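User: Here's a chain of 435 residues. Predict its fold as tokens.
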Amino acid sequence: MKLLTSLNDFLWNSPLLFLLMGTHLFFTLKLHFPQRHIGKALRLSVTPEKQQGQASPNLSAFGALATTLAATLGTGNIVGVSTAVALGGPGAVFWCWLTGILGMATSYAECYLSVLFREKNKDNLYVGGPMYVMKNGMRNKPLAAFYALCTVCAALGVGCTTQANSLTQTTSATWGLSPHLVGMAAAVLVGTVILGGIQSIGRLCMKIVPALGLLYIGSCFLLLYINQDAIFPALGLILKHALMPNAVLGGVAGYSLKHAARYGIARGLFTNEAGIGTSAIAAASSGSESPSRQAYVSMTAVFWDTVVMCFLSGLVIVANMLKHPESLAGVNETGLADAAFTYLPLGGNEFLSLALIAFAVTTLIGWSYFGEKAFCFLWGEQNLNVYRLIYIVMIYIGAVIPLHVVWECTDFINALMIFPNVVSLFALQKAIRET
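Assistant: Prediction complete.
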């Protein structure tokens, strides 16, 4: 564990952050700032695409986007931002936001290639993702198999056990519920959805995810209205801490540009997954025939996840630090969001707990699909129920066990996924078009 922890600290402190930010910047410039088309992308995400002939058995473009958001919107947007501000200072909010802005270009590239090199399975459904890009685009099956194996492991780790544990920690702290009871209930609920296949997953995500996102965004705006006189000072503090090269005093401790960038970028990358490649698995399942159109739609997941929701969470936290510094007494690094939501009318902390629970459940559902497609790539669809059973059991196990080991293993697996994915993006960059 000491060796693994040291390795993760090294990878996530410098090499991976430079690699991913460099990749984001490269594709932003190569594709001539696809972020400038965010208005077009948002319109496409809610505009049904004309289908020829029979209704497509595949997901709609919006269904693929909702599935991606189900997996990415979660505790990272709330708890992750809280820890970023606590460990990196208010300036971490700026670097997290910048990661989202630039990461949209990498997401576009990933999703474009996954739609371009996808296949159809025996049920006439599209399947794709970075493993198919490596197999069909790079002609490198060993690399594709390695990425798929890492995806399965990540699904059972960050997508399953960590979310289940977050679920039980929240319910235990707020209502004193038994982790065993909550774990079993979550396993049954999620299992019912994933056994219904991608259409079942897509339908549920299309109904729940937009409502959850809008409700959380609305609560953030209400808190900002309550603390309106602290908004501009909070923005100034965020910029000051983000760009100051030397240590400066913040609301919690002394911070520097290095700390702000390190934690802001890391949390931004963790929550939107741009560069890891998993969102492209959902993009490839869309019935859209245009790689460019689907890439634009899928790019909006990073926009909503990091540019909007993470930024709002950070601004709410920093504004509360300035307006109500007394609320920070005795608060640990994950509790800054709790302190801010205390001032939300009609049970703010209970609302935040419910939001965390709902986000954790949707993340469980979204990640189950990512792992499912990687599992089928390796062992075929005839063994799919084996994976689903393992995933459901792991939800219960994750709910009741200490997760330090799982978190360390998951961080390492995510790091391993980044390298082959980035290699495939640069190897096939000439195939990516922007229209």
